[in-house]
Design a protein that fits this description.
The chain has 247 residues and is mostly helical. It contains ten helices and two strands. The protein folds into two domains: 69 residues, Winged helix-like DNA-binding domain superfamily/Winged helix DNA-binding domain (Arc Repressor Mutant, subunit A); 140 residues, Up-down Bundle (Four Helix Bundle (Hemerythrin (Met), subunit A)). Helix 6 packs antiparallel against helix 9.
């Protein structure tokens, strides 16, 4: 999607903050200077700063200027914040937060999915699983099917708040899937684990579904820890997902 002047200005400032070019506690240049640097009006700068305030990145006040807030204040469920972090580069802290979040949210969502999933939900998850299995054999975009599988489970819980969270979790989940898929034999090895989750949901067995998704999450956690302990480069999420080679 092509962004307007306001969107581009928010992106420019947000990326600079998340990348650390403006550190926590630092003040960003005043409106006239930023406007001149970016070639936009003071009104555009003012509205962009309002957007950054809403995302928890900065605070402002009369006679004190606009200051960058520490990371713990940032809205990590905001798609823009996630995109800026992806462009700046993943960090171990970001990945550990992701794994903690997955372990809290997904098991509870899958328990509900095993109780509430409609046939349409199950069909969509099955299509995603079939896509994963096909890509393992033939090659292609494994990560997108993996993401569709997990977001399908979150939608199947039929909880509006969790469904909304699934949209924000998309980029976060892709991080985990990119890392797991980059491990030799990782996608093929995880197929049976995904199947166990789907079968438990189809069988309407919440306890079994929760246990199966925890096994899957813990496996992904181990993959991430192994990659963090190595010198391998972490994936960048502002580029298309890596393609899996045919078996």
């Amino acid at each position: 999607m092509i962004k307007n002047v306001h969107g581009n200005t928010v992106d420019h400032l947000g990326e600079a903050i998340v990348a650390g070019r403006y550190v926590a506690g630092a003040s960003i240049p005043p409106e006239p200077i930023l406007g001149e640097q970016l070639g936009v009006s003071r009104t555009v700068i003012r509205e962009a700063v309002k957007s950054l305030i809403a995302k928890g990145l900065v605070t402002t006040g009369p006679k004190v200027g606009t200051h960058v807030l520490p990371e713990e204040h940032w809205n990590w469920f905001d798609p823009d914040v996630i995109a800026w972090q992806a462009k700046a580069g993943l960090t171990p802290e970001f990945l550990h937060d992701l794994m903690d979040l997955r372990r809290v949210v997904e098991p509870a969502a899958v328990r509900l999915a095993a109780q509430r999933a409609t046939q349409e939900d199950i069909t969509d998850i099955e299509i995603a699983f079939e896509g994963m299995a096909r890509v393992v054999k033939e090659g292609g975009d494994y990560v997108s099917y993996d993401l569709r599988f997990h977001q399908g489970l979150l939608r199947a819980c039929r909880n509006r708040m969790l469904i909304h969270m699934s949209k924000a979790l998309g980029a976060l989940l892709r991080t985990s899937f990119e890392l797991s898929a980059s491990k030799k034999g990782g996608p093929a090895g995880s197929l049976a684990l995904h199947r166990a989750v789907l079968d438990a949901v189809i069988a309407r067995n919440p306890a079994k579904a929760e246990k199966a998704i925890l096994v899957l999450i813990d496996g992904a956690h181990q993959d991430i820890e192994e990659i963090l302990a190595s010198s391998r480069r972490l994936p960048r999420l502002n580029t298309p997902a890596s393609m899996l080679k045919a078996a």
